[in-house]
Amino acid sequence: MADFMGGRRGKNMAPERGGPPAARCSGWRGMPRALVVVAAWILTVLPAREALAIQSHGGAEGLYVHQIGHLLFLGMAVVLALRLRGNPELSSRGWRCIKASCLLFALWNAMAFVGHCLEEVMPVGVFVGGTNPWSWVLADAPQWKALLFYTCKLDHLLAVPAMFLFLQGLRALDKENP
After folding, report:
1. Which residue has the higher pLDDT, 29 or 119?
2. Are the C-beta atoms of 136 and 106 separated by less than 8 Å?
3. How many CB atoms within 10 Å of residue 83?
4. Kind of pairing, strands 127-128 and 137-138?
5. Which of 89, 97, 111, 177 fits as disulfide partner to 169, beta carbons 3.0 to 4.6 Å?
6. Helix (H, G, I), strand (E, B) or coil at 151
7. What are phi and psi of 138, to 5 degrees?
């Protein structure tokens, strides 16, 4: 049975007559390389638009669900880290990376939870700026509260390394168990 390029099905996928040009089938996942290059160039030169990464919770129920999600994720990360710590069979490099990522995810969830609570507890008059949340500045808050609030806004400094360690752990486990 021939595939869409006219070749035979099999291990080497060699075409029946003559080979297609190198640019036709050597791209990413079988896409023509020229198409990949043109698509990447077009996506690069398109004007960037607003990402709208601020998450607003319309009512209290949205915030409650979000906060419960942080608590559940925190609990899962702590339980998994404790189970990995107690099992000597799971002491390879991959599992150590996953355990470290669990601890960072737990810290990230705790930090995000506290940050969301602080944001809700502070009165609206504390923030000055326009209607765009990116332009808000914390103007009238006690020093410790402002410091804690801004520290909690840097939660990505824990989340990104946690994701990286988790990925490294999965890669190491994949290499250990082919």
Report:
1. 119
2. no
3. 12
4. antiparallel
5. 97
6. helix
7. -80, 110
Poorest-pLDDT segment among 6-15, 79-88, 160-169: 6-15
Q: How far apart are CA 167 and CA 151, in angstroms?
A: 26
108, amino acid identity = W
Q: What is the pLDDT of residue 27?
A: 46
Residue 48 to residues 73, 135, 152: CA-CA distances in angstroms? 33, 19, 28
| Helical H segments across the chain, by residue range | 22-25, 33-45, 60-86, 93-121, 143-152, 156-176
Residue 81 amino acid letter? A
Work out the number of other CB atoms within 10 angstroms of the CB of residue 107.
16
**Which tokens in the block code for residue 52?**
């709208």
The answer, yes or no, to whether residue 70 has pLDDT greater than 80, is yes
* Whole-number pLDDT of residue 144: 79
